[in-house]
Design goal:
Blueprint lengths: L14 H5 L11 H11 L7 H12 L5 H16 L5
Helix pairs in contact: 2-3
């Protein structure tokens, strides 16, 4: 049996636990990798390229998180379902 454990950091994890696992550290996506991730998350929504670039910059600048991106996607979807006023 294989177990996969995840944590935001190693602080607070006991030495016996750390002794029993192999630690892999995954970095936050940046640059073109992050841009592709934003495009993939927003797939199916009609989002302008400038919006993708701004969201990417906000995430890289620490002003938006990947969880925040998911909330933003849900907000875009909700706006798309609202009736349009002419």
């Amino acid at each position: 049996m294989t177990w996969i454990l995840t944590a935001n950091g190693l602080e607070g994890l006991s030495a016996p636990l750390l002794d029993r696992v192999t630690v892999f550290q995954a970095r936050h996506p940046t640059g073109s990798d992050l841009e592709r991730l934003v495009i993939r998350v927003l797939d199916g929504l009609e989002v302008d390229e400038r919006v993708v670039m701004r969201i990417t910059a906000e995430i890289e600048g620490g002003r938006l998180t990947l969880r925040g991106l998911d909330r933003l996607k849900n907000n875009f979807r909700a706006l798309g379902r609202r009736p349009m006023l002419h």
